[in-house]
Amino acid sequence: MAPVPTFPVKVGQIDDVQELRKVEPSTIPERFVRDLTERPSSLATALSPPGGIPIINLSKLMKGNHDEFHNEILNLATACEEWGFFQVIDHGIELNLLENIEKVAKDFFMLPLEEKKKYPMLPGTVQGYGQAFVFSENQKLDWCNMFALGVEPHFIRNPKLWPAKPAEFSETLETYSRDVRKLCQCLLKYVAISLGLKAETFEEMFGVAVQAVRMNYYPPCPRPDLVLGLSPHSDGSALTVLQQGKGSSVGLQILKNNTWVPVQPIPNALVINVGDTIEVLTNGRYKSVEHRAVTHKEKDRLSIVTFYAPSYEVELGPMPELVNENNPCKYRRYNHGEYSKHYVTNKLQGKKTMEFAKIQTQNST
């Protein structure tokens, strides 16, 4: 198979948004200016609904009485079916660890460009510093700097990309990733229960799960109406865990009923979303939802995103228990590694990557 042609963004002053802000603080280069249909105002943007996206209290699932557990499982099912997103509180990850990972992430992005360039995101990869999902020279760029690393299993790591500065970066990320991994395993047990499946269903199916982290830094933007911080997409993972930096601007928006709904951060909560993998396994009952990031004129934003997915060797498809006459099979069986490769070698375009998994009818071929 011929390699996928790539045109990676060269990390330099022209296309690194932090450097742009230093050199020409009021200018938006054409490469970042979106077409009219893609701009943040292209679809209606709702005010945050009362209460916002659903909130799940993990301690009620782990330690609550019968009624609390039952109610929270129903809340989880509703969140996954109707929103594809929820915020989890009482998640068990220490507050000081959340603060520490934010600090080392921010400290990394504040390093001189020459230091960050030691960890470049190479062509056709999604690890390192730069912009991922860029495949053509005329493709619009996101108003964002990214730093991404493979974490588990160890063979997906590229040790040369783990930074020497700040000095505590690697140790903090190891501890944080271990705790987030436990959280994902725990949440997937309750997702399984909410579907009427045995708690260990996903853990047994996934094998040694793949885990990666991506840190996103969005500097203030002089014209937030013209750019996107991150293009609309759904995640290829099973679950995604998002930590939004304290004091950051409200940047995450999810597409619900053809309207972009902003997600108001709850202090010390984590935002969880269902990925494409869970949509396929549940035959569309739980949905991966399109989301994007917008920018702010005066405030910056930091986010730390963990992706949790099955082993690359696993074959996936709708679970038989969730296929019936009322919900016929929507997706084919496929190798998860092949889907992952498909996902990272295509630009972010809403839910277009899901076409890889959909059963094609004669009318659509």
Characteristics of this structure?
single chain, 365 residues, Jelly Rolls, four-stranded antiparallel beta sheet, disordered N terminus
List the helices and strands and how they pair.
Blueprint (H helix, E strand, L loop, with lengths): L16 H7 L31 E3 H6 L2 H18 L1 E5 L5 H15 L3 H4 L11 E3 L14 E8 L16 H26 L6 H6 L3 E9 L11 E4 L5 E6 L7 E5 L2 E4 L7 E5 L1 H6 L9 E3 L7 E9 L5 E2 L17 E2 H9 L21
Parallel strand pairs: 1-2
Antiparallel strand pairs: 2-10, 3-4, 4-5, 5-12, 6-11, 7-10, 7-12, 8-9, 8-11, 13-14
Helix pairs in contact: 3-6, 4-6
Report on this model:
This protein has 365 residues and is α+β, with helices and mostly antiparallel strands. It has one domain (17-21, 32-364): B-lactam Antibiotic, Isopenicillin N Synthase, Chain (Jelly Rolls, Sandwich). Helix content is 27%, strand content 19%. It has nine helices and 14 strands. It has helices at 17-23, 58-63, 66-83, 95-109, 113-116, 169-194, 201-206, 276-281, 336-344; strands spanning 55-57, 85-89, 128-130, 145-152, 210-218, 230-233, 239-244, 252-256, 259-262, 270-274, 291-293, 301-309, 315-316, 334-335. The strands form three sheets. The protein has an eight-stranded mixed beta sheet with strand order 1-2-10-7-12-5-4-3. Strand 8 and strand 9 form a beta hairpin. Helix 4 crosses helix 6 (169-194). The longest helix has 26 residues, at 169-194. It is globular.
